[in-house]
Design brief:
It is a single chain. This protein is an alpha/beta fold. 40% of the residues lie in helices and 18% in strands. Helix 1 packs parallel to helix 10, helix 2 crosses helix 4 and helix 6 packs across helix 7. The longest helix is centred in the middle third of the chain and has 22 residues. The radius of gyration is 21 Å and the shape is elongated. The N and C termini lie far apart (56 Å). Bound molecules: 6-O-phosphono-beta-D-fructofuranose. This is 6-phosphofructokinase. One of its GO terms (molecular function) is 6-phosphofructokinase activity. Its EC number is 2.7.1.11.
Length: 319
Amino acid sequence: IKNIGLFTSGGDSPGMNAALYGIAKVAEINGIKITGILKGYEGMINGDFSPLKSSDLKKMVHRGGTLLKTARSKRFLTIEGRKLALKHLQENNIDALIAIGGDGTFKGLLTFSEICDIPFIGIPGTIDNDISGTDYTLGFDSAVNTAIENIDKIKDTAESHNRVFIVEVMGRDSGYIAIHSGLTTGADAILIPESGKDFIYLLDKVKNYDSEDAFLVVVSEGDEIGAELVSSKIKEVNPNVDLRITKLGHVQRGGNPSALDRMLGIRLGVEAVKSLLQSKKNVMVGILNNQLHLTPFNEMVKQHQVNKELHELLELFGK
Ligand code: F6P
């Protein structure tokens, strides 16, 4: 391997720069050139390549976002787009690729492998924590910390006014951010996509709510649930509640990565390069039980379901 192309794709997540730093450092030590591809697959299609040095990335290790920028590319879904991407990789003498992104990014690589035989390695980077083959995706821990910090603040005002507050957190169709941030802020109810439209325990509780205290609901975004729906359900059973909605939104995606995400980024980045040096291809580098773990792209699945233990906690604390 002489020249590794690096890119970030899909939603940015804190820790992506740390992973790039890990990759760049170990690549340089092994005499391998690294080339940044800007804006994910879009940059590959447009030929937006530039050489990277670990010294540039050292300055970014503590920063959220991604130095390489990112995008969700529709053109890469077409064969014309993928052929153009291949042409630019060949012109730039890229002989291996490391991608940091979510399941869509890895599915893209799997499809790309039909026409491109250079080795690909994936690093799971998404705040949603919704990928199998790793206990944590890069950015999840930072996003949860941001959510907690903000929910703590909301609790101060909620308690001062004895209000019902519904806080909507991100996660797409995964409830990990909601469970972690809801449990650790003492929420009265936590609603996650995995539970479907099961509002019963929330409604039972809020029916008798007498405005003598705050009532905090943490709800995950999603087609099935979301803050507005929860609000209308609450008002059906208790029309007089003083209720406010806060959607934390993209604030959860930004900010300096937590210690855990910085270390995870560096560990996964270093392992990605080592895997290439050991002739591995088309695998995602993850972490299971604090051990580095490789999962072939074709076995990796999008994981919506929070695990059994977390479900039990949800039931326990929902009572
Ligand atoms: O996948 C990460 C994520 O932040 C989800 O939690 C959220 O649903 C989505 O991306 C938002 O996407 P966009 O930044 O395109 O609005």
